[in-house]
Automatic annotation (TrEMBL):
Protein's organism: Oryzias melastigma
CC annotations in GO: membrane
GO molecular function: ABC-type transporter activity; lipid transporter activity
Cellular compartment(s): Membrane
Residue stretches spanning the membrane: 14-36, 682-704, 725-747, 759-781, 788-809, 868-889
Presence of keyword Transmembrane: yes
Designated name of the protein: ATP-binding cassette, sub-family A (ABC1), member 2
Residue ranges of every copy of the ABC-2 type transporter transmembrane domain listed in the record: 682-888
Residue ranges with Polar residues bias: 337-354
Coiled-coil parts of chain: none
Presence of keyword Membrane: yes
Domain of life the protein comes from: Eukaryota
Membrane topology, record value: Multi-pass membrane protein
Region named Disordered: 337-372
Length: 940
């Protein structure tokens, strides 16, 4: 062997280098492991505090803010968003709710109000007015036609206002638009005396110096002149010349100039001529309308005035929502002109709403282009969320159209938190989710109705949005035609005349007379109302588009739990329903709920953790923040929803406070060592790979000795088999013990196994080395060719590690429980026993205590009966079993069988299994046996 005498310097020197290589080659991987350890040391981690997460009872705003990508924790763990405008939004909502009757309990509802508004507008539109009620029904006239002396007034324009004769002549022949005179005449005058004048004497109002100056030299003077004085396009520069001439100079000079113009107009205008042209004969005002018609019109106008104030409220609320929700589709007006499908369903716990119909309705409303876009629902949600982020989160997000077309959130720049939460939310909303409950037809229905209030509110908003889009076009047409303003003008004119001539109301009932005399009707101008319509149309269109494929009919009742199970297993898939969870209540025989309500939640297994994965089977420092499936996937949400609904049902009113939040307990400071997580599998694998070469070389040397008949030579010298195997054991143990000692120093003082006892590390590795030597002995007796034995021995040695890999995968991936007996059976392979033992080194190092003598017979894994002590005992048993098998196989199994004769020496004779015999050769050293007639003697 390698410890024989060297007869030459060169071969001995070479043999020493080979021996040194065999000793230190197992250390290479561990030096690499040591380098990795130095690159990845343990990291101290500060104490951890966690944010409070809202549940359904906390309110919709906190829930939506929980989707925001970032936030600052306050001292109690609640997230704050300093740039958020939610506070201003809520204050604005409170103000508009307190100042308006739209949200009072005695109101019939928004949908009824919208229908009433439409009816009242139609009533006003059909109410006849007298043919002489305003200027708009009278023909336009030229300025010269109502002057007493056209020549004198033209001379005044030329001399006093420095206008040219041609300019003065064009102005005198310009046509006066009576409709614009009517629109321009209301309370745009500053002085109190001017504002008190009536339309019966338009020359008194329009011919004041302040009004003339305002219409001519005001901010919109040029536009106002173009509207009142109608001139052909080629004569429009005349108006500019007139305006520049009369508006020059300082304020005092300009006021004096317009005062003179006003005085001249008062003297020159023929009042009787204007009265005849405008049909302002007073006795005709009440001739065309009966008191009944007046009363109906006044009621309609009063209701319209009130409802338009509600319209102002709705536009104020819609203005708070993100704009451009329907960008890229149709304009608000064109959408309003379409007809949206109405859903007159009364939202409740037992309503049935077909998601297919919702989808088809949304496709019709959104247009053909959106119907062909598979990502339309995703796009609508992303755009809505991006628009709400400045309000909720305080940060602006720009959605690029190209990124939106890709249909994934990562391309839109969303954080991992947003992708997880928003992706799950979109999936749940569009998958037709259902929460099944039982028993139906009992007091449980009231509880479910309370729990369904939020979803019912969302459904009602969707319904109102569609109602609004259906009547928006009619409102727009009515406003653009000017009928509402015409009725208002006529009533204001009539009220003013009646205040001056109350005798006209003789025979009229007192209520109508008082209403006409009051006549204080104010309605916003058309442009303001149209802007409000656009704002509400945008919000309604965006909401309808977003909800087109979202089902808010969440709850579905069943008589008992068996019906729920049967529906979930057999019918839900055919109905295209995603069963999210089921809630089963225990009720009395009469269907009422007992004072102590008991119920169970059975959630879809796809949205819950497996019970064997709720927590790790062993303890390690650090918080368990990886799961939270009971929160993220809705189990706690359903529980909170049901608990609050039960409370509201029993107390008889809604309990708003306190809102429920969930918050993880804080975790103290600890040391995190990510490197130790790989020790469990890296250390046994490194050991197996490192000693493959040593095992192969030892097997090769032993078999080579047999192959070259050296073993027979030693027998002839008087050495028996025991001396032969002991010599090889000493050789292998001395060689491996050097590696074991070096490995112990590397693992302990290289801070790989920092907390473990070094003596236990050395003892464990030493026992494994002994088992490895015996494994080499067992493999060596099977082969007679050294090269073949070396190659196959290394492969067999590595394959013996496979059972440990199987056990590790079953325990850590499949989370199956492997009993101690099964591990002991697998540990009959020494490398498997070594791998199982190394696992406990890693687990105790992760826990920060390491393997000690007091823990050598204990497992840190819950429910695990195996431990490091059993692993070391199995290694000892493996060594003993390998040794017995080596002796037994060598004694009874012939390695070389030659046809025609028996060979002696190291070649045994196959005998009866169970007792060992060895052929007795005679003839001295002839080496020839006597065949079947040979004398046999026991080997023992």
């Amino acid at each position: 062997n390698s410890f024989g005498l060297c007869f030459s310097v060169s071969p001995c020197f070479l043999l020493q280098w080979v021996l040194a290589f065999e000793i230190f080659i197992p250390l290479v991987l561990f030096f690499i492991l040591l380098g990795l350890r130095q690159k990845k040391p343990a990291i101290p981690v500060k104490e951890a505090f966690y944010s409070a997460a809202p549940l359904t009872s906390a309110g919709i705003i906190p829930i939506m803010q929980s989707l925001c990508p970032d936030g600052q924790r306050d001292e109690f763990g609640f997230l704050q968003y300093k740039n958020s405008t939610v506070t201003q939004l809520l204050e604005r909502l409170r103000e508009v709710v307190e100042q308006n009757r739209l949200f009072t309990s005695d109101r019939p509802g928004l949908g009824q109000d919208l229908e009433n508004l439409q009816q009242h507008l139609e009533g006003l539109s059909s109410t006849p007015l007298p043919p002489d009620y305003n200027f708009t029904r009278s023909p336009d006239f030229t300025l010269a036609s109502v002057l007493k002396n056209q020549t004198l007034f033209q001379q005044f324009l030329v001399k006093n206002l420095s206008l040219s004769s041609s300019t003065a002549n064009v102005l005198l022949n310009s046509t006066v638009s009576l409709m614009e005179v009517e629109v321009s005449s209301p309370s745009s005058v500053d002085t109190e005396s001017d504002s008190a004048m009536t339309l019966c004497g338009p020359q008194g109002l329009l011919l004041t110096g302040s009004m003339l100056e305002l219409l001519t030299c005001g901010e919109r003077g040029d536009a106002e002149l173009r509207k009142i004085l109608l001139l052909p396009e080629e004569q429009q520069p005349v108006l500019l010349a007139y305006r520049s001439s009369v508006c020059r100079g300082g304020p005092a000079e300009r006021s004096e100039r317009f005062r003179q113009l006003s005085q001249e107009l008062r003297e020159q205008i023929d009042t009787q001529s204007i009265t005849e042209k405008l049909h302002l004969e007073q006795p005709s005002f009440l001739a065309a309308l009966s008191p009944a018609h007046l009363r109906v019109m006044l009621k309609d106008l009063a209701d319209v005035e009130r409802l338009l104030k509600d319209l102002d409220l709705l536009s104020a609320l819609a203005r708070l929502l993100p704009k451009g929700a329907c960008a890229g589709q149709k304009s608000a007006s064109s959408i309003a002109n379409g007809t949206w499908p109405l859903n007159t369903t009364t939202w409740g716990p037992n309503t049935t709403d077909s998601s297919t119909e919702e989808a088809s309705q949304g496709g019709q409303a959104g247009g053909k282009e959106e119907a062909e876009n598979p990502h339309s629902q995703f796009s609508a949600f992303v755009q809505l969320w991006a628009g709400l982020q400045p309000i909720l989160c305080g940060n602006n997000r720009i959605i690029e159209p190209e990124a939106l077309k890709q249909g994934n959130m990562s391309s839109l720049g969303f954080t991992s938190k947003e992708q997880r939460n928003l992706g799950l939310l979109v999936h749940l909303m569009t998958a037709n989710p259902k929460i099944l409950y039982s028993p139906i037809g009992s007091q449980v229905d009231k509880v479910i109705q309370k729990a369904n209030e939020t979803f019912a509110f969302i459904g009602n908003v969707t319904h109102y949005a569609r109602v609004w889009l259906n009547i928006s076009a009619q409102l727009r047409t009515f406003l653009e035609e000017g009928r509402l303003q015409g009725h208002l003008k006529w009533l204001q004119q009539l009220s003013s005349e009646l205040q001056q001539h109350p005798q006209l109301l003789n025979g009229t009932d007192s209520e109508l007379m008082q209403a006409l005399l009051d006549g204080n009707y104010t309605i916003p101008n058309t442009s303001t109302l149209l802007e409000q319509l656009d704002t509400i149309d945008n919000a309604a269109c965006g909401w309808s588009h977003f909800m087109s494929k979202v089902s808010v009919d969440v709850f579905k009742g069943f008589p008992d739990e068996d019906s729920i199970v049967n529906y979930t297993l057999n019918q839900a898939y055919q109905d295209n329903v995603s069963v999210f969870a089921s809630v089963i209540f225990q009720t009395n025989k009469d269907g009422t709920l007992p004072p102590h309500v008991q119920y169970k939640i059975r959630q879809n297994s796809s949205f819950t953790e497996k019970t064997n994965e709720i927590r790790r089977a062993y303890w390690r420092p650090g918080p368990n923040t990886g799961g939270k499936f009971y929160f993220l996937y809705g189990f706690v949400w359903i529980q909170d929803m049901m608990e609050r609904a039960i409370i509201n049902t029993f107390v008889g009113h809604d309990v708003v406070e306190p809102g429920n939040y969930v918050q993880m307990f804080p975790y103290p400071c600890y040391t995190r060592d990510d490197f130790l997580f790989v020790i469990e599998h890296m250390m046994p694998l490194c050991m197996v790979i490192s000693w493959v070469y040593s095992v192969a070389m030892m097997i090769q040397h032993i078999v080579a000795e047999k192959e070259h008949r050296l073993k027979e030579v030693m027998k002839m010298m008087g050495l028996n088999n025991a001396v032969h195997w002991v010599a090889w054991f000493i050789t292998g143990f001395v060689q491996l013990s050097i590696s074991v000692t070096a490995l112990t120093a590397i693992l302990k003082y290289g801070r790989v196994l920092l907390h473990s006892d070094p003596l236990i590390i050395w003892l464990f590795l030493t026992i494994y080395a002994v088992a490895t030597i015996m494994f080499c002995f067992l493999v060596s007796v099977i082969y007679s060719k050294a090269k073949l034995a070396s190659a196959c021995g290394g492969i067999i040695y590595f394959l013996s590690y496979v059972p440990y890999m199987y056990v590790a995968i079953r325990e850590e991936v499949a989370h199956d429980k492997i009993t101690a007996f099964e591990k002991c059976i697998a540990s009959l392979m020494s490398t498997t026993a070594f791998g199982l033992g190394s696992k406990y080194f890693a687990l105790y190092e992760v826990a920060g205590v390491g393997i000690q003598w007091r823990t050598i017979s204990q497992s840190p894994v819950e429910g695990d009966d195996f431990n490091l002590g059993l692993s070391m005992m199995m290694l000892i048993i493996d060594a003993a079993v390998y040794g017995v098998l080596t002796w037994y196989i060598e004694a009874v199994h012939p390695e070389i069988l030659l046809v025609g004769q028996w060979t002696c020496g190291d070649v045994g004779v196959a005998l009866v299994w169970g007792w060992s015999y060895q052929a007795q050769c005679d003839g001295g050293g002839s080496g020839v046996c006597h065949g079947p007639a040979a004398v046999l003697r026991p080997a023992l």
